[in-house]
Inverse folding.
């Protein structure tokens, strides 16, 4: 049983869950993910292991409610259980002493960035973190990120907190003033953000690692649904990734692939919201209108 | 019934199996072939000549005692037929449905020359289905030996190996990366050919009664490495299959609407995408679908796509569309089971033989809009005696398509090899193992099924699982060997 032991709301549309999954916790490392199924009718969705506790046999998931499956998970409470949690999957982040590194995280990407920044810091790096969200209410874990960073820059698109603007602005300034110092950049967040981080670092020739969140099904290399077009051919995000060199990704190809099921996803959300609004609705129409059988 | 003479037996024509009519079955995912009735099965069984040297048995990778089970069946001793079957094959309801009988047991039957082989597979299915209803013979675990075996993968190879070892009294734990056991049986082969309820029931009676534990959601290589399993278990069997799909190296493979048959079939079967949105996993199929390849996988993908098209048409009133199978060789080389090819043809799948795709065409939105192909002709036989297809210069042409599904064969899933020092692999990605015993070059590790041979058949995977179980048992029972290993 993959019981939810703890649930916390981090922002309007982001929840944190501590889930019992000893088989995952025992071998989990920063950068890896799990495939979760909410209930028997559910789909397999990938979620990053934001933290783990080997002793307690638990993993922490941070979920942004954007579609049917994640909204449904957001409604689950401590004590409920997921149908399936498989993992850990994907390659862990390569952690080494690089010198000075920058960790750029947007929105829900702050959660998976936290263990990476922590591991980089523990490995002796000087960690500069840039975190951002659309507005203040969507921002979380500033304190945690601060505790594992030597420098921290916070921004919001609308300026409701921290610097006004997107994360690539302070990143560009950093590269312009300290390009020789920055050895490597990590970026996790919406695909469009990772694209622009990669475009920002490219002229400076600073290696940039992105963590891709393609559509997945099995998560074990069996379907190819997660394949990402790269400059030198396609890769499977679930087995070859999820981290890749952002300068090699064909971003527009990737963005287009991620839209493929948009109509179906919208249909699923609408149906689910309809069902949820009328959970115990029983049809009494036949009592009003006698049905001929 | 009085005993018949061989002449009389040979005069009985082979019995067809009742099936859903093509125009009906393309609107549902229910099983196509409905199975023999009791009368049909008895009559078909009468056709067997009970050969003293039954060549049919040589054609079966697990050596099912064919004349014996058929004899029991025709004498009305169904419990006896079940027992005889179980001596060699624990999954008859499955094998009877999916074995390529016409190239195995039935190909060897003495009556095959006239195209009138005894319908061994259909009779096997009849015996298997009987047992699922009646439960005449429950498998029993042997007296506990105190030895523990880890089996990786719950496809036919892993399941068969696990069952045989448990019958001998060894404690068996199966580790499966997906959320359901069964391997290709559950994620690949569609409901209309092999109903999930049959797999569930056959697994239940084979596995649960024997006390075999199945741990789903365990991705070996990551959750545990093979070496970690070796610390806890006395032996490890790898039956991880060949699930990694391949795509053609032609322009356009990353367009929206291009997918592997594995992705398409996993969405449809494992995740029940054909019941979206009741089930959450969407599956999308266009009005003009091209399936590339002509094996079982291609037939399954094409027939599933056809059903989705007809189900959509029933809802929106629009014409269903077309499904094409695009194959570079000719009808004669089609590798799929005869029955599947025949069913696909009956259902209206369009076959484009001697046709090879050279590019997938896309529109401005990054979606598939067509397929550019070239016509092929069969050249001179090569070293292997096969006539290989060669392109006809200047014969390029385009077909409008909005979905392209690659069914081109697969190679072994790589994850299990993570940190598995000492496991040797071929350049095709398969693991090197002795074909007789399943031993790999890593002490304590056996392997069998598609992970060794590359994509093959259910029954050959089961045969490999059986041979490995026998060798693992030899190893576990021999104190000397065991203590060294
Ligand atoms: C390796 C990996 C790790 C991941 N880790 C996490 C994680 O830790 N936490 C998490 O919340 N998600 C994570 N994701 C993404 C998550 O799997 C998807 O958000 C989820 O599958 C969506 O399912 P759904 O049914 O709720 O939404 P769907 O109905 O499948 O999608 C809804 C729509 O939202 C769009 N969309 C996708 N991403 C975004 C976005 N960021 N902002 C706005 N729209 C978007 C999609 O294109 C789609 O059209 C990860 C993905 C991968 C591949
Ligand atoms: C669509 C389709 C149709 C087919 N039709 C037929 C047919 O009609 N007749 C026929 O005889 N054959 C058919 N085949 C071929 C047949 O299904 C296979 O040859 C057979 O299933 C191989 O069995 P296996 O046990 O070796 O592997 P599989 O059935 O592939 O099972 C392997 C299992 O191992 C699991 N696994 C993989 N890696 C790991 C890991 N790291 N950790 C844990 N678990 C892991 C997989 O999830 C899977 O469940 C078909 C195949 C396909 C794809
Ligand atoms: S298991 Fe397959 S090959 Fe063997 S007898 Fe049965 S149908 Fe024939
Ligand atoms: S070869 Fe044919 S006729 Fe002879 S025993 Fe086998 S099935 Fe019967
Ligand atoms: S999710 Fe299926 S191959 Fe990656």
């Amino acid at each position: 049983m993959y019981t939810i032991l703890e649930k916390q709301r981090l922002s309007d549309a982001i929840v944190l869950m501590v889930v019992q999954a000893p088989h995952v916790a025992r071998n989990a490392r920063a950068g890896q993910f799990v495939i979760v199924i909410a209930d028997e009718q559910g789909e397999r969705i990938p979620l990053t292991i934001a933290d783990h506790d080997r002793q307690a046999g638990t993993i922490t998931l941070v979920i942004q409610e954007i579609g049917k499956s994640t909204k449904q998970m957001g409604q689950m409470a401590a004590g409920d259980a997921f149908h399936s949690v498989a993992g850990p999957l994907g390659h862990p982040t390569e952690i080494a002493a690089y010198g000075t590194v920058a960790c750029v995280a947007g929105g829900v990407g702050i959660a998976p960035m936290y263990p990476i920044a922590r591991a980089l810091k523990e490995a002796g790096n000087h960690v500069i973190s840039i975190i951002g969200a659309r507005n203040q209410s969507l921002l979380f874990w500033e304190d945690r990120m601060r505790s594992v960073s030597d420098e921290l820059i916070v921004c919001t698109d609308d300026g409701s907190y921290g610097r006004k603007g997107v994360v690539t602005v302070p990143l560009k300034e950093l590269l312009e003033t300290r390009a020789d110092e920055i050895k490597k950049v990590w970026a996790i967040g919406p695909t469009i953000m990772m694209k622009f981080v990669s475009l920002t670092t490219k002229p400076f020739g600073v290696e940039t690692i992105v963590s891709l969140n393609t559509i997945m099904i099995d998560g074990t290399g069996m379907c190819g649904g997660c394949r990402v077009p790269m400059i030198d051919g396609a890769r499977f995000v679930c087995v070859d990734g999820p981290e890749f060199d952002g300068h090699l990704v064909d971003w527009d190809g990737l963005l287009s692939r991620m839209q493929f099921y948009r109509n179906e996803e919208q249909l699923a959300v609408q149906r689910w919201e309809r069902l949820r609004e009328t959970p115990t609705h029983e049809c009494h129409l036949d009592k009003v209108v006698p049905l001929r059988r | 019934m009085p005993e018949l003479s061989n002449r009389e037996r040979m005069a009985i024509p082979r019995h067809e199996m009742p099936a859903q009519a093509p125009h009906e079955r393309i609107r549902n995912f229910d099983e196509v072939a409905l199975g023999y009735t009791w009368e049909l099965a008895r009559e078909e069984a009468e056709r067997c000549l009970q050969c003293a040297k039954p060549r049919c048995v040589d054609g079966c990778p697990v050596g099912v005692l064919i004349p014996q089970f058929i004899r029991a069946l025709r004498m009305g001793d169904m419990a006896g037929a079940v027992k005889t079957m179980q001596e060699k094959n624990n999954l008859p309801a499955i094998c009877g449905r999916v074995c390529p009988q016409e190239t195995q047991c039935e190909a060897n039957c003495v009556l095959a020359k006239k195209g009138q082989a005894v319908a061994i597979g259909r009779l096997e299915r009849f015996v298997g289905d009987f047992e699922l209803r009646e439960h005449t013979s429950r498998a029993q675990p042997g007296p506990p030996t105190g030895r523990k075996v880890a089996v990786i993968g719950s496809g036919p190879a892993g399941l068969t190996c696990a069952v045989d070892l448990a019958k001998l009294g060894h404690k068996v734990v199966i580790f499966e990366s997906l959320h359901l056991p069964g391997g290709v049986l559950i994620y690949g082969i569609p409901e209309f050919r092999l109903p999930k309820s049959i797999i569930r029931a056959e697994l239940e009676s084979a596995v649960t009664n024997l006390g075999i534990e199945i741990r789903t959601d365990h991705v070996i290589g990551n959750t545990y490495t093979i070496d970690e399993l070796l610390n806890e278990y006395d032996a490890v069997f790898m039956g991880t299959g060949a699930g990694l799909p391949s795509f053609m190296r032609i322009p356009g493979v990353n367009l929206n609407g291009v997918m592997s048959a594995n992705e398409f079939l996993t969405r449809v079967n494992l995740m029940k995408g054909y019941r979206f949105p009741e089930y959450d996993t969407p599956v999308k199929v266009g009005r003009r679908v091209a399936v590339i390849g002509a094996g079982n996988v291609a037939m399954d993908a094409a027939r599933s796509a056809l059903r989705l098209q007809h189900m959509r048409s029933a809802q929106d009133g629009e014409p269903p569309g077309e499904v094409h199978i695009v194959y570079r060789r000719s009808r004669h080389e089609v590798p799929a089971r005869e029955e599947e090819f025949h069913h696909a043809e009956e259902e209206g799948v369009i076959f484009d033989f001697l046709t090879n795709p050279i590019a997938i065409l896309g529109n401005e939105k990054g979606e598939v809009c067509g397929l550019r192909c070239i016509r092929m002709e069969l050249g001179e036989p090569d070293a292997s005696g096969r006539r290989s297809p060669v392109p006809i210069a200047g014969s390029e042409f385009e077909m409008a398509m909005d979905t392209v599904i690659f069914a081109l064969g697969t190679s072994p899933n790589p994850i299990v090899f993570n940190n598995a020092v000492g496991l040797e692999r071929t350049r095709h990605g398969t693991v090197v193992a002795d074909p007789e015993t399943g031993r790999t070059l890593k002490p304590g590790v056996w392997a069998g099924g598609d992970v060794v041979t590359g994509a093959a058949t259910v029954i050959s995977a089961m045969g490999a699982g059986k041979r490995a179980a026998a060798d693992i048992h030899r190893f576990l029972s021999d104190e000397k060997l065991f203590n060294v290993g």
Notes: The mean pLDDT of chain B is 93. The longest strand of chain B covers residues 368-381. The interface with chain A takes residues 177-179, 187, 215-219, 222-224, 243-245, 247, 253-254, 256-257, 259-260, 262-263, 266-267, 271-272, 276-282, 284, 365-366, 413-415 of chain B (CB under 8 Å).
